[in-house]
Amino acid sequence: MGKQSAPRALPDNEAKAVLRMVRISPQKLNLVAQLIRGKKVETALADLTFSRKRIAGQVKKTLESAIANAENNHDLDVDDLVVAQAYVGKSIVMKRFSPRARGRVGTIQKPFSHLTIIVRQVERDAAKA
CB–CB of 38/81 below 8 Å? Predict the structure, then answer.
């Protein structure tokens, strides 16, 4: 007799995956997120595969997780999926200190970020099908 599960926050044609506490600044992660927004998932995966950004591998893994969630948990067709949203949020900032000249100190900030990817199933056009 546990607690009732919360109602589904997303519509029935969407699935999501979240990557938390990534050791990269939100600004840099957003550059990669912009690369895949609004694209079909096959194109987005290809773009991430050949991207030269360090974080592209982890973003690709998160996108693959969102695709797997859509296929296995929500019975969506993988061929009709597009990246509906890919957004970045700030997380903690670790502060480190580096000694400088004349007894001063320089601060080093090491930011973390969160990434959320939402994929949506779109209907095929009658002309294409």
Answer: no
User: Domain map of the chain by residue range?
Assistant: 14-121
Burial class (CB in 10 A: 0-12, 13-18, 19+), 12: exposed
Which strands form 105-121's sheet, in the order they lie side by side? 14-22, 105-121, 81-99
What local confidence, expressed as pLDDT, does residue 5 receive? 87
Please give the angle made by the CA atoms of 114, 120 and 123, to the nearest 5 degrees.
165
- pLDDT score for 2: 84
CATH architecture of 14-121: Alpha-Beta Complex (3.90)
pTM: 0.89
pLDDT at 76 over 80: yes
